[in-house]
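[Archive record]
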Amino acid sequence: MADAIILDQRLRKRMRGWMMFDWATQPFYTLGLTFIFGPYFAGVAAEYFFNGGLDQESANASAQTIWSWGQAAAGLFVAVIGILAGSHADSTGRRMPWLWAASIVFVICSWMLWYMVPDGSAMWSSLIIFCIAFVAAELALVFTNAVLPSLGNRREVGEISGSGASLGYAGGILSLFIMLFFFFDEGGKTFMIGLDPGFGFLDSEAREGTRAVGPLIAIWFAIFMVPYFMWVREDETPNSHGRVLPIYGHAKTFPTRNGKAAKPICLHGRANVLSRRPQRTLCLWRGLCSFDPGLGANAAWYFWYN
């Protein structure tokens, strides 16, 4: 009885630790991708192109174009590599080393967004760094999701996943308020309460308050991932046992299911499967065409292995 209680307590800690991943990573999407760094990058890039001789409308269009193409390239990379990463995690049971690696890359690249100065001299390097951080965040999500099946049954997993997503959105909103009230310095003062950015320690003319979004994301992630790495112990039992088939030509690597080896399926025959499974086709295309390439990778993974 005592052992059962201890095991239940450990499992609950693992659940709470797992849910902290969403809380730790959501500021990157809220602050970096959507509300702070993305618009700041577009504004700096537009001014850079305008000073280079383009008219204002063309400069704005060029700025939006390079930002969009950067996200598209990163998203495509994640959609392809995420499937292979998920396959590796599911078939080997090794997730934490890869999660550690992705986390380190993410923290370093997020911090380096600080160097996106207003004159645009670091525009291209900052775009590349942001895209690398984006890929690292999405791959970390893949390896985190690979741990999820070990936390409960199908019903419990859905509840845990939904609770983690809700917690993540709450973290994103809180981080946005912190950024707007104490750092974001468009116009020289912070949003609404009118403070000097960073309590007066940051230079608004150099947009240091806005550029602090990178270090804020990195510090937030480093602090709030501590419960995850403390409480989530890797269950090295594979989610599925795989076997390797030739990947070039017509076949693909497929895991075994329910102890039975899966049959190799020809890639050129998937069109027939698409026509027979319209609900899975819809799931695949909604994922691949969604704003979140990680969701696209998950959708593709679900399609190929079900």
In short: The beta strands are 242-243, 254-255. Residues 56-92 form the longest helix (37 residues). Residues 242-277, 279-284, 293-306 have pLDDT under 50 and may be disordered.
